[in-house]
Design brief:
Largest sheet: 8 strands, mixed
Number of strands: 22
Radius of gyration: 27 Å
Helix content: 10-25%
Number of helices: 15
Distance between the termini: 43 Å
Structural class: alpha+beta
């Protein structure tokens, strides 16, 4: 595993060159993709900032601090040429990721004034009240819409709203806003806002989080995008606004896409041609490709013509229709299909150079011991590389329900690269026996139980999409829920047996009509990386013992019988027999945000023991 990367401080203010401002705070490189990416809010000491967009901070993503990384299959899917690691340097003379102060509304705990930060006349580089000389407090509240826009909470409108009609006042006053806490409770009722104009009474923040609270004031989203600065004028979008806590997870959710580096792209030899593949694809014959390479390379080519043709053939096979072809979701599934094929076929280390980033071998033990379990085809993934790219972000929506219309791009103009992180690790891949799985899927009880989850999940997707034409179908199928729950119990088991924390393990599901596999792997940038302990668990004898132990452990939950007998659990009823005491995992380990889980499909129920795929393992 690669060592932990250098950490990087952020710049503080917007509109001023970053090198003229003090740097504030530090985050890990991986957090710049998963937690504090473009458009997110970050709290540094007593201050709050929003991470600037790529086109407004491209200078800080220079090659020295933000090196390029390549993963052609993912780059083609996301329509970019390459990726960049987030800036990381311990050199104070270099820029880090840039940020802008947000929210701008601050309050002084001493004089209780509530106004824009600059109106307090703070000293250069500090966030203190120019009169009281105490630390200013950023507004706890912001507003956002489902399209991804973000804005200041309308305190003036909230104070001056009509108590009779609920509508906001239309005439501005000359008073100053004040904010104080009564200290009686920790609820919104104790946060009081007033105006010195005395035209409106002091009001609390209670009720500001109601779904229609701002709509009742006649306020709509103005389309503000503070991460892009003043050069990106707001265009009113008109969607309803919701009040959020500044630190709420609903303020920013990343849209991450990932891919494993698999042959023929996994040895890195094609990386020098990363920015030329789209033009190379337009040349259909060998002679045309050779002429293009001669034109762009004066001296020696980075790879041979035969290798280039092999790569072009592999690319066209995976994405034959190019940009005019299937939808993004279809192409993403095709990417997974190729990974599944490669994981099944393997890639022996002895046949490749040490630069090979994907090594997948068949275990030496007798695989027949796994037949009674319905498990087949285990593979030892001794080396893997995964690239996770930040495609966009959303607000007020679960990443699982994201549609293209709700994704907010990372820049105001088209970019030919995206931020990404690469992680290297190891893993174990296994499949379920297709014949046994097919018979189990046809059982009426299995289909009925899965349909309950699918219906609940589809309802959640429809509610969040708003527009029925943008609703994506729920992926819930019997084999998907089974594989998902199996992956969770295996991760929990290996966190006990193999010495890895559950948060250092991750699942990758391959569930479709022609796929029934799961990859459990270590792909993390911290010290719990590739130590060989997980690969050792893939030997058939150990794997047999692990699966049996995991299934037996899933048979009982400390919350039973409530957990097993519940009619619905999880967000919107998208789980059945699943809770934090049995099968749920840290969010970083799960592809589906801990939804679509049901251990009854693993072990059955007391009334229907045959419901579980592994019911025979538990039979006395």
């Amino acid at each position: 595993m690669t060592p932990p990367p250098a950490r990087r401080r952020r710049a503080a203010e917007g509109g001023t060159p970053a090198h003229n401002l003090p740097r504030r705070g530090a985050v890990r490189r991986a957090q710049a993709i998963t937690t504090y990416g473009v458009g997110s809010l970050i709290a540094v000491d007593h201050e709050s900032f929003i991470v600037s967009g790529l086109d407004h901070a491209e200078d800080s993503w220079r090659a020295g601090e933000a090196p390029r990384i390549h993963e052609r299959r993912l780059a083609r899917l996301l329509d970019v040429s390459y990726f960049r690691l987030p800036p990381a340097s311990d050199d104070d003379s270099k820029d880090g990721m840039r940020g802008r102060r947000f929210p701008l509304m601050h309050s002084c705990p001493e004089c209780t004034e509530l106004q824009r930060h600059r109106d307090f006349n703070p000293p250069q580089g500090r966030s203190v009240c120019g009169t009281c000389e105490v630390e200013l407090v950023p507004s706890r509240f912001v507003v956002a819409c489902a399209a991804g826009h973000l804005g200041e909470f309308p305190y003036w409108h909230w104070v001056h709203r009509s108590t009779e009609r609920g509508a906001a006042a239309t005439v501005q006053c000359d008073g100053k806003l004040r904010l104080r806490s009564s200290g009686r409770t920790s609820s919104l009722r104790s946060i009081l806002v007033s105006c010195t104009c005395e035209q409106a009474p002091e009001v609390s923040m209670e009720g500001s989080f109601r779904k229609n609270a701002l709509k009742d004031l006649g306020l709509r989203c103005q389309g503000t995008r503070p991460w892009l600065g003043t050069s990106a004028p707001a265009v009113e979008c008109g969607l309803p606004l919701r009040t959020l806590q500044r630190g709420s997870s609903a303020v920013w959710q990343p849209v991450l896409k990932s891919a494993l580096s698999i042959p023929p792209w996994s040895d890195g030899r094609a990386d020098p041609l990363a920015e030329h593949w789209e033009k190379l694809r337009k040349h259909k014959d060998r002679t045309a490709v050779e002429g293009y390479l001669d034109a762009i390379f004066d001296d020696e080519w980075p790879i041979s013509l035969d290798e280039v043709m092999t790569l072009l053939d592999a690319e066209r096979e995976e994405d034959p229709d190019g940009e005019a072809g299937p939808s993004f979701d279809h192409r993403y599934r095709a990417l997974r299909n190729k990974e599944y094929e490669r994981l099944r076929s393997g890639n022996d280390e002895s046949e490749h150079s040490r630069d090979e980033q994907f090594v997948c071998e068949t275990p030496l033990g007798d695989q027949s011991v796994l037949a009674p379990l319905g498990v087949t085809g285990p593979m030892l993934v001794k080396k893997l590389r995964e690239v996770r790219a930040l495609k966009a972000f959303t607000r007020l929506a679960d990443p699982e329900s994201t549609t293209d219309a709700k994704e907010m791009p990372l820049s105001g103009s088209p970019m030919h690269w995206l931020p990404a992180m690469e992680v290297r690790g190891e893993g174990v891949f296994l499949r379920l026996d297709e014949d046994r799985l097919g018979t189990w899927e046809k059982a009426a009880a299995v289909a009925a139980r899965t349909e309950r989850m699918r219906t609940a999940h589809q309802r959640v997707l429809e509610e969040r999409a708003g527009d029925p034409s943008l609703v994506v179908p729920s992926p819930a199928t019997p084999r998907m829920v089974l594989l998902h729950t199996l992956a969770h119990v295996l991760i929990n088991e290996w966190s006990l047996e193999a010495g890895y924390p559950a948060a250092a393990l991750r699942e990758r599901l391959y569930a479709a009509d022609d796929m029934a596999g799961v990859l459990i792997y270590t792909a993390t940038s911290d010290s719990a990386g590739s130590l060989g302990g997980l690969v050792a668990q893939g030997e058939p004898e150990l794997l047999d013992r692990t699966v049996r132990s995991a299934v037996h452990r899933a048979e009982w939950c400390s919350s039973d019988p409530l957990c097993m007998e519940t009619e619905a659990s999880g967000t919107g009823g998208t789980n059945l027999a699943a809770c934090h005491a049995c099968v749920m995992l840290p969010e970083t380990s799960c592809e589906h945000n801990n939804i679509l889980l049901d251990r009854a499909l693993l072990v059955g129920t007391p009334e229907e023991p045959t419901l579980g795929f592994f019911g025979a393992v538990l039979a006395p």
